[in-house]
Design brief:
homodimer; mainly alpha; Arc Repressor Mutant, subunit A; Tetracycline Repressor, domain 2; 2 domains; 9 helices; 68% helix; DNA-binding; MT1864/Rv1816-like_C (chains A, B); transcription cis-regulatory region binding (chains A, B); DNA-binding transcription factor activity (chains A, B)
DNA sequence: CTACTTTCTAGACATTGACTATTTTATAGA
DNA sequence: TCTATAAAATAGTCAATGTCTAGAAAGTAG
């Protein structure tokens, strides 16, 4: 079994510190050397755990997807009528995106997705969770297309709302209303008839 | 009157080259020194026109908003039924966003918007154009709220769709369908009744 | 022709990401 | 327990970059 030595668990420490730094100064403000300084190790130490700066960013992205999946998972299992549950999930999505704007940038950066890898896998896990939770996975066939399009509409609305807030075009409060409106429009659309996981 | 000397019009040349470089290597791949090299001037020359790297990025963002407004303006004035015109505008929006992904990143970066400035102004001009073109600006009052929420739904759907394509979660073709679906859902929603600029 | 301003050059500096050789620490095998 | 082996961390180096400064060159206006 492998165990850390000098520093307890440098990899975890670096990831934690990196997230703090990310929140403070954005992606550009995240410096490997500054990170090492704060962790009290030499400037070359991080290389033992992250071959690249990009490797660190990818690890952060994966962690981000996992934490987002947790939050969404909670909202997904709240016992409530469809409309209410959709709103809860939508808000969980948008809240996470807004509270972790810089992290979201990493998670959805085209860079990480150029070649399928751990980041892409983590993303797939999140959206599989979302899909399975929101939409009935029963009858395939003609309903399958409808389901697919419905899920994309949901994802686009959430991602778009988060983008509007993050870029300061609207306030967080306006975002709340927007999520609700989007959910209403979505549920009222023809695409959202007869394909929901729970019609209550 | 001010006229360029040595280099014709270095500022414009730099902006053009910067856009090429942006398209090739993303925001991170845009180096001031490399830019100067390609323009055949010394590494300090750009400083006469852009005090900062950020100043160059901001100038690019402003240019981006203006070009996007042009494209959208064209789609906005195509004589066609509402549904068709909405689709055209939506596609124009998404197409521009996808064809200029790195530029969009600059345009909507929170950095530029921390303090209102030229970038914010350019953004406001674009969205004013969009709003005035899509939604009737006649009756205020209770309809005003509806109009505002409708416009936000539109913006969120477009921005979200573009994000899905850019992050490679869906293909461009799926994006086309998604835009159409979003427009249908939008026009069918209660929010989109009686507030359109042209009910044809 | 002479100030004056703008544009550009050239040199310097600190910071950064990446690479390498080397030492230190831990783990496992005989 | 002693020892080979792998992992983790150090320290030094390098090229590249953004920013700043002083000064030269080019254009403009009085």
């Amino acid at each position: 079994m492998r165990r850390p030595f000098h520093h307890g668990n440098l990899r975890a420490v670096l990831l934690d510190q990196a997230e703090v730094m990310l929140r403070a100064g954005g992606v550009d403000g995240l410096s490997l050397r500054e990170l090492a300084r704060q962790a009290g190790v030499s400037h070359g130490a991080p290389r033992s755990h992250f071959i690249d700066r990009q490797a660190l960013l990818d690890a952060l992205a994966v962690q981000g997807f996992e934490r987002m999946a947790e939050k969404i998972g909670v909202a997904l299992h709240v016992p409530a009528p469809v409309r209410e549950r959709f709103r809860l999930v939508g808000r969980a999505y948008v809240d996470f995106a807004v509270d972790n704007a810089a992290l979201m940038e990493l998670m959805f950066a085209a860079k990480s997705n150029e070649v399928p890898g751990p980041v892409t896998d983590a993303a797939v896990r999140l959206f599989t969770l979302l899909d399975d939770g929101l939409v009935a996975n029963s009858n395939a066939g003609a309903g399958g297309q409808h389901r697919e399009r419905f899920k994309l509409l949901f994802a686009a609305a959430m991602q778009g709302t988060a983008a509007l807030i993050t870029s300061r075009r609207i306030t967080r409060e306006q975002g709340e209303v927007l999520v609700d409106d989007a959910m209403d429009a979505l549920l009222a659309s023809q695409l959202g008839t007869g394909i929901l996981a729970d019609e209550r």
